[in-house]
Amino acid sequence: EKYRGSVSTTGPRACYDEGKRCAETLFFDYLRQHNLRIRVARIFNTYGPRMVPDDGRVVSNFIVQALKGSPITIYGDGMQTRSFCYVDDLIEGMTRLMKADDKITGPINLGNPVEFTIRQLAETVIKLTKTKSRLIEKPLPEDDPTQRCPDIKSARKALKWQPEIELEEGLIRTINYFKSI
Ligand code: UDP
User: Fold this and answer.
1) Among 7, 42, 58, which residue has the most ligand 1 atoms within 8 Å of its CB, making it the best to mutate?
2) Is 16 labeled as catalytic in the residue annotation?
3) Is the pTM of this model over 0.90?
């Protein structure tokens, strides 16, 4: 939360990064100028039931591909990491942040600090769905981060929060959702 960032302002993902940075700046201006009650949560990769099947995110892509028996598309070598937070855990964190004392404005990281490679995620989805799908490699998108893992010390301390649902459990629930739609 203290790091001020060193990000591309012109790359294909820049509008996403810069949009979030700008939003945080405006929030703090509203706090200073209008005393608005604000909370800034920094949300890391989140997944769970009701994801849109074709929005392109990795958990939904892999589950949909596995259930159809289509190839599972790993971008790059699959050694990049992400930390996946189950949606119910995230909502609990956000609710605690909103109920917390107004002094707790954030930015505060909310996410699951347990890190997996994308290849491990693919293998776990294959195991849980018992699919016959095979892995294929596709080009890594430009500016794809090689690692992402939240430090949730502040959330643990200020909100007494940490994720409770492990990846396999969350994936089982999400797979059941995708089977049901
Ligand atoms: N990814 C992948 N196959 C897919 C979709 C995504 O290997 O079908 C990779 C993607 O390149 C990234 C990671 O999975 O390294 C997470 O991608 P996502 O779009 O879900 O989230 P973000 O990149 O915002 O962390």
Assistant:
1) 58
2) yes
3) yes
